[in-house]
Amino acid sequence: MNDAFKALADPTRRQIIRLLRDQNLTAGEIAEHFQISKPSISHHLNLLKQAGLVSDERKGQNIVYSLHTTVMEDVLGWMFSIVGKQDQEENK
């Protein structure tokens, strides 16, 4: 889970997650949304993959990236459990 939080700490990677939430994309399609180099996008994608937040699949000459929703659900579930505990403590 620590790798997921480290990966989500960067605004570029959070934006990539938002893009993949809507549809699966190639690295080139993701790069079109940013004004940074393609190698930088590749670096961000690799960090997201290492954290388990995205997965990739080769389709012909392209690699298509998709959001790994199970890991995202785990991260969000953990975050909501912390928020829920704080709310309960404040209401005591």
UniProtKB/TrEMBL annotation:
Q: Which UniProt keywords apply?
A: DNA-binding, Transcription, Transcription regulation
Indicate yes or no for the key word Phosphoprotein.
Answer: no
- Keyword Hydrolase among UniProt keywords: no
A Pfam family for this UniProt protein?
HTH_5
Cite the GO molecular-function annotations of the record.
DNA binding; DNA-binding transcription factor activity
**In this protein, which residues make up the domain named HTH arsR-type?**
1-87
Write down the PANTHER family for this protein, in alphabetical order. Answer: TRANSCRIPTIONAL REGULATOR, ARSR FAMILY, TRANSCRIPTIONAL REPRESSOR SDPR
NCBIfam families cross-referenced by the UniProt entry = HTH_metalloreg, repress_SdpR
> What protein name is recorded for this chain?
ArsR family transcriptional regulator
Organism, scientific name? Brevibacillus fluminis
